Task: inverse folding
């Protein structure tokens, strides 16, 4: 069935959310609470299955205290962190 | 602070309540009377309307996008199915004895498409296939028991009647168990079972064609959708799931 083909992709965006989260020893649920989303959304972002909106990306950058470019970058074919 | 194990999250509470209302409506539809499908309809569509109106704000952006993507998929597949049914009716000149069955068929296709797409956004192919197969197997088992009891007769006759219906539950339950361990093999097996069921149940019979089509759809569509999703599982997805 065609609908089984339609899954989210990361569209060539790579993120370092998991690395920054672990540096601060936050759980996925805690990060979700800080930026106003569910834990499953954090799981999907860290797994590269979902690219957050601009607003959410900026809120994550503020929560981590880093520029948003340190969290998200264009994937130029490098391996996952 | 310790790292949480990377497991799949449960669905939010409002979604679980919604699923419960839909399940209740389907059970009432199957057991009490077909007009009770209104309960399933309320569970399926009213929360979405309330969310679009801004009354309910229980979903975050990922959940909203998953819901909208699923709705678009349901529009595409449901629209195609509707056009096929209309075309078939015009070409065959078939008179619809039970028009509600035809409309129910289209609604089932629409809703199953939405369900598969939405769940796959969260769970991926393996878990979605296993969960949906188990749910459909449970419904068929419940239907088998209620139908067997409803037909009456001796205790042995009732057991035999239930047993005959439960044969259709086996591919669902077996598929749910095997989907996690051997996804690609299970996928091909489910597709083969679907083809066999199509041949077996698609033969002309005394039953009204719209009723037969509805039975086929609720029986075969979950198997086919799960099978296709499972055969596409990549090796690294299997390793991550383990």
Result:
């Amino acid at each position: 069935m065609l609908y089984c083909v339609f899954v989210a992709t990361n569209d060539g965006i790579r993120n370092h959310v998991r690395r920054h989260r672990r540096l601060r020893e936050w759980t996925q649920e805690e990060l979700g609470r800080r930026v106003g989303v569910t834990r499953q959304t954090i799981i999907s972002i860290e797994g590269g299955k979902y690219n957050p909106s601009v607003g959410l990306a900026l809120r994550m950058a503020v929560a981590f205290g880093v520029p948003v470019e340190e969290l998200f970058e264009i994937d130029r074919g490098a391996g996952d962190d | 602070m310790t790292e949480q194990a990377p497991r799949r999250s449960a669905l939010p509470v409002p979604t679980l309540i919604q699923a419960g209302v839909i399940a209740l409506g389907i059970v009432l539809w199957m057991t009490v009377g077909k007009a009770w499908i209104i309960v399933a309809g309320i569970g399926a569509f009213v929360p979405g309307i309330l969310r679009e109106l801004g009354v309910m704000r229980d979903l975050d952006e990922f959940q909203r996008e998953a819901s909208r993507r699923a709705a678009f998929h349901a529009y595409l597949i449901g629209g195609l199915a509707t056009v096929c049914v209309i075309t078939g009716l015009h070409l065959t000149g078939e008179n619809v004895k039970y028009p509600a069955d035809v409309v129910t068929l289209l609604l089932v296709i629409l809703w199953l498409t939405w369900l598969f797409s939405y769940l796959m956004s969260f769970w991926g192919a393996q878990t979605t296939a296993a969960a949906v197969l188990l749910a459909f197997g449970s419904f068929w088992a419940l239907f088998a028991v209620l139908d067997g009891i409803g037909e009456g007769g001796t205790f042995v006759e009732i057991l035999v009647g239930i047993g005959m219906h439960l044969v259709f539950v086996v591919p669902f339950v077996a598929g749910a168990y095997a989907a996690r361990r051997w996804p690609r093999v299970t996928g091909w097996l489910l597709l083969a079972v679907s083809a066999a069921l199509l041949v077996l149940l698609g033969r002309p019979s005394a039953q009204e064609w719209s009723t037969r089509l509805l039975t086929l759809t609720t029986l075969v569509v979950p198997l086919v959708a799960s099978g296709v999703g499972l055969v596409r599982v990549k090796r690294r997805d299997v390793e991550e799931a383990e």
In short: The two ends of chain A are 34 Å apart (CA to CA). Chain A has one domain: 12-70. The beta strands of chain A are 13-15, 72-74. Residues 12-70 of chain A form a domain with the 434 Repressor (Amino-terminal Domain) fold (CATH 1.10.260.40).
